[in-house]
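A note from the maintainers: we've had questions about how concatenated examples are separated. There is no special marker in the raw files; a new sequence line simply starts the next protein. For clarity in this README we add a label.
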Amino acid sequence: MSPVSPWQWIEEQHRQGRELCLILDSLGEMETRQTLLNGRACDRYASVYDQTSVARLANAGPYLILLSRADTEALSGLLGAPERNWGWLASIAQGDLPALLEHWRQRFLLDSRPNQALYRFHDNRTLTRALDHLSPDALPPYLGPTISLCYWQGEHWLALDNPAPGEYPLPAMPEWLQVPTPGRLRGQVHVINVYRYLLAHHYEALRQLARHRRPLAWIHAQRMQAEQWGWLEQEHLQFLALHSLPRPGYGVPDAWNPRPDETPHMHFERVSQMAGFSQGEGVL
């Protein structure tokens, strides 16, 4: 795949008579979402999590929004800031939004209770890793009714055509769930997992954070702090994020900084004890 201009890709989809669909991460783009939904007919968008077992997360979950040329300004804002990892673009046949919605509703929830997890198909980084590893035969069951897609790969825009768009049952062993996770992506996986934890267990606090900060960017900053302290495990990041979330400025007190004679383990144990004494101060 070669780099493309997203605007040229969009024009080609319009020329082919296809519908243009925005797959949007709502939690980080609520203002953009509201702008796009204002006055839009209800059959021109859908919340993926709505009417599912995780409907309580619908407001912060992914949305599918059919775009028109009138949405150029809002779309320009997104295309001009791909580093926000807001999602990706797909083209579908006229009238295929319900099929696309059902397709991803069958694929976003992994495992069964109590070990359920959310597959972040709407995250262009998740999409990129999958597309980098999927065999040609696995592309149609993964992409479903999507005819073509355009996404930010991390350095440039790429486009990919689905070799056989259509409706497919969920495979027993989806190939996209077997994508290897390189060591360099370990920290990113920790960020996503902590985000999922906060979304599932501390949604209101996360929603309040989203009014001032981009949640994933904030958790990433927490990870950088944790790694600077030598706290390298996911439980360390989860602890730091959980106890920073209710504090003014979403940070930690100076007393939590490491002492010169402390190992990372000693530091974490001391801070854990301090946090234990102040549990009643937070909102979580």
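[label: protein 2]
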Amino acid sequence: MQLKLDLQFFAGEKTEKATPKKRNEERKKGKVAKSQDVNTAFLLLFALILMAVFGSFMKDNMLALFQHSFTEYINWELTEKTVFQIFLEGSMELLKIVGPIMLIAVIAGVASNLMQIGFLFTTEPLKFDLKKIDPIQGAKRIFSLRALVELLKSFLKIVVIGAITFTIIWMFKDDMLMMAFKNAESALSFFGRVTLIMGISATVALLFLAIFDYAYQRYDFEKNMRMSKQDIKDEYKNTEGDPLIKSKIKEKQRQISMRRMMSEIPNADVIITNPTHYAIAVKYDENKASAPYVVGKGVDHIAFKIREIAKANNVMTVENRPLARSLYSSVEIGDVIPEEFYQAVAEVLAYVYRMEKKV
């Protein structure tokens, strides 16, 4: 009894890698190995590169918008029409400034996801599920090992990014103190450059951490995808079908095939036997084939049934042991007689035709 329980326990233990079928089913549900840190790092990196390349363009457009606002818009009469026009023109200018960043953010997000999981579109995660608002399941997630790992990971990111930020500020501390003696444009240019250096450095560090996070996400995903030996057996049954049902279907197919074969026996020209164990029903119809062909064959019980049906329908039976055995092993039902048996079968058919003419 104890041994049986132990075997059941090990059979239910999830130690096997997930099958392709399960992976495909989970992927359709949106369950894939993905690191959000990779998405964040790519988004920040692309956005910072864009700001480094088009920073002056964005600054010029922003200054032009402020200048136009404080020289033109401030003198306009406040009416419904002017407010709408200010809003429309201001929105268009802001779109020109932030539009490239929004576009690059979308491109970076799509690219990072394609790199990790390829193309995947599913609405399964959007479906309403009561388990998602189950307080017990929520508490389990909060106090799970994964939650602890995420907490430590977040703490590590704060420490690393904080250290990088502090280091860069410390490097430029003397220049920052001297900004009090510079004009606004020089100060703005300096702080923009320092912010860009700080952002790119922090993003590179975040990208480095994202590689480890992606490796962990893959490990955790594979661990959660594991299957027990019983799961694999059940999946095989569902895929291939229950062996009992399959055997019944095959048995049914054999019965149908047997009935079809037996229905052709009355149309045969001759039954070649050995005489008790083998029976081969042969027919020659020049409109259907260029040579005689087998319409039925069988051994033992089936051979007996073939002879019985042949006798009931006045189909001649001829004993030829070597020919019966050779035809049974060489020719399938519906196939034409091979060339090496032409002479032997022709002699049998000639004998049958002579006997039928005498009758």
